[in-house]
Amino acid sequence: MDLELAKKNPVLVTGATGYVAGWLIKKLLDQGFTVHAAVRDPTNKSKVEHLDKLAEKSAGTIKYFKSDLLDEGSYDDAMKNCTVVFHTASPFIFEVKDPQKDLVDPAKKGTRNVLESVNKCDSVKRVVLTSSVAAMYGDNADLQDAPNNTLTEECWNTTSSLTRSPYSYSKTEAEKEAWKIFEEQSRWELVVVNPSLVIGPGINPFATSESFKIVREIGDGTLKSGLPYLGLAVVDVRDTAEGHFRAGFLKDVKGRYIISGENTSLTGIAAALLPKYEAYPIPRWTIPKPLVWLIGPWVDSTMTRSYVSRNVNYPLIADNSKSVKELDLSYRPLKDSIQEMFQQLIDSGQIPSVSTS
């Protein structure tokens, strides 16, 4: 897709106030695009002021459209004349009262509603869907059955359900729905971006991503008694946005792309903070798995004994080679991303500042 030619038409970003969407919109605006930003309430200026500030400093233009994932046809107006649709909107939360209502319906039905609007809009040539590596595996132990114990674009999550890792289940259901709708037509292309745990500073420091909750608890003393060894793959939010942008406009892209910078662990994230933030109550100890199994359910409702058994002390290895080769992505190191994110949380008052003198 010719980038300069693509700029003649607007592009749509759903979930425009989201964590990844903020950096994607910045990239699009800086490149001179007109961005149609789909949000729940365009009149709530406090939710979009950080995007307005981006537009003021850029060569592009932003226009807001009222849209809701669960309302059929609510993306029709936002999509008019757009050539590329970036569907980033989907809840990223772990603790919910009703997994079907709070996670699966917004993810799956929302994807269906967006793509049904795409089917009605002849100008759209490509859709970039924000999925997740969570759509590729349910528990870290699942990778014991993967080739070389490694997560690749060929993997699918077959172990999650409404009652077992419902967030992962919602991402799996949403992505499967997208591929189903795509395969029933031949006019537009679908490219799926599967990020690992997204970290790094937000355009809006008060983003509602679960990532911010995890890092806040690492830094504010909540988890100072220690962490279990839980294998994770992580990626900087800016690299994630760049991956979306390239998936939207590069010519020969297709299928799924794991967007992931580094294979690490929960304890590895804490360790990457310590050299610069040693004065903070960052956890320094790895809690033995038997102890996590014993006390986990009492401390955190998501830390069930079944979850502990199949995740704690298991590494997570994600293969990002397809994104490096086909999207020409390079990735920031974990240390830089997590330290910048941590400092932003301190500066915004979300982690109490500690004197280092």
TrEMBL record:
Determine the domain of life of the protein's source. Eukaryota
Question: Which segments constitute the NAD-dependent epimerase/dehydratase domain?
Answer: 11-245
Q: Which GO terms describe its molecular function?
A: oxidoreductase activity, acting on the CH-OH group of donors, NAD or NADP as acceptor
Keywords of this protein's UniProt record, alphabetized? Oxidoreductase
Q: Which residues cross the membrane?
A: none
Which Pfam families does the protein's record reference?
Epimerase
Q: Do the record's keywords include Zinc-finger? A: no
Q: Which family does it belong to?
A: Belongs to the NAD(P)-dependent epimerase/dehydratase family. Dihydroflavonol-4-reductase subfamily.
Q: What is the protein name given in its UniProt record?
A: ZYBA0S15-01574g1_1
